[in-house]
Design brief:
The protein is mainly α. The protein folds into two domains: 59 residues, no CATH class; 241 residues, MetI-like (MetI-like fold). It has 16 helices and no strands. Helix 13 packs antiparallel against helix 16. 31% of the residues are buried.
Length: 337
């Protein structure tokens, strides 16, 4: 199968997947006990006001009719209006998602740049000091709760030492760069706002460290196990018997075959982080998609919940497609069936 045919087929399958997720989420969210109209009107509002709001929001119609209306609006690019922010859900997603994307990209870069070499070193120095250190480091990262490490990082590096700023994305009083991508670091570079760049990078360090510490442990363990398995293969023994240097054996022959399983893990981690790291965003007051979703669920904001769910589904599908395509690049023997 040609590459473009495979990509087109996968893209066409997005439609049924998104429709199924939308239907399931819509039904479940509407079966949750509670009345969004009552929450919006307030606990002391007269029943007439609540009923009027229910009619205005379409909640007085049967659930199947509400879903068909939602699908009709969705096909016209309308994700609805959020009852918590009083803004269009599409505008809210465009506003909050770049903050999560910026944090996710920074965390993944650190995790990959540090985690993969650490896993390789751990495998090639098996049962020696570097291996013991890597295994303890990885186990600690996986086992440490994010909420605890986030609070400890804030306590030590912000409150006690004062090396880094506290919660938020930029210092109060600084001029926020013109929003182009929504990611403050990139927007600061594009617009040449250097004070904002320094401030946004410093604010990014602590939440990135917390996230990458937890994900790095999983990457180190996966790379280590993959390398150990590949290094026992016959073709590695043959390469060594030919007199190739250990560096050539490890990086030219073993690493490329061992990293395929790690690519799957990285893709899953990336998709998970893009769906919103709620705890980190809450601890560091990071205005991302995770905090937005929690607020929407708390106030039964159906339109916001649906918009968030569809966005997360689209992210996972896209990341999964990217991982499958990258497999073919890493291993030409893999065919896109």
């Amino acid at each position: 199968m040609k590459l473009h045919h495979y990509v087109v087929r996968r893209l066409l399958l997005m439609g049924p997947v998104l429709l199924g997720v939308a239907a399931i989420t819509f039904v479940i969210s509407h079966l949750v006990p509670g009345d969004p109209a009552r929450l919006m009107a307030g606990p002391h509002a007269p029943i007439e006001v609540v009923l009027a709001l229910r009619a205005k929001m379409g909640l007085d119609k049967p659930i199947y009719e509400q879903f068909l209306i939602y699908l009709s609006d969705l096909l016209h690019g309308d994700l609805g209006m959020s009852i918590t922010t009083r803004r269009a859900v599409a505008a809210d997603l465009l506003r909050f998602f770049p903050a999560t994307l910026e944090l996710t990209l920074a965390s993944m870069i650190v995790s990959i740049v540090v985690g993969i070499p650490l896993g390789v070193v751990s495998a090639t120095r098996q049962n020696r000091l570097p291996d013991h250190f890597s295994r303890i480091f990885a186990l600690t990262g996986v086992a440490t709760p994010i909420f605890w490490s986030g609070l400890m990082v804030l306590l030590v590096f912000y409150y006690l030492l004062g090396w880094f700023p506290g919660p938020g994305r930029i210092d109060v009083g600084l001029v926020t760069p013109q929003q182009i991508t929504g990611m403050l670091v990139l927007d600061s570079i594009i617009t040449g706002n250097w004070p904002a760049l320094v401030s946004s990078v410093r604010h990014l360090v602590l939440p990135t460290a917390v996230l990458s510490f937890s994900t790095m442990g999983m990457i180190v363990r996966m790379v280590r196990s993959g390398m150990l398995e590949v290094l026992r293969e016959d073709y590695i023994v043959l390469a060594r018997s030919k007199g190739l240097s250990e560096r050539a054996v490890v990086y030219r022959h073993a690493f490329k075959n061992a990293v395929t399983s790690t690519v799957t893990l990285i893709g899953l981690i990336f998709g998970t982080l893009l769906s919103g790291t709620v705890l980190v965003e809450a601890i560091f007051s990071w205005p991302g998609i995770g905090r937005y979703a929690v607020t929407a669920i708390t106030y039964l904001d159906f339109a916001a919940v649906m918009g968030y769910t569809l966005l997360v589904t689209l992210v996972y599908i896209t990341v999964n497609l990217g991982v499958d395509l990258f497999y073919g690049f890493l291993d030409p023997r893999i065919r896109l069936e």
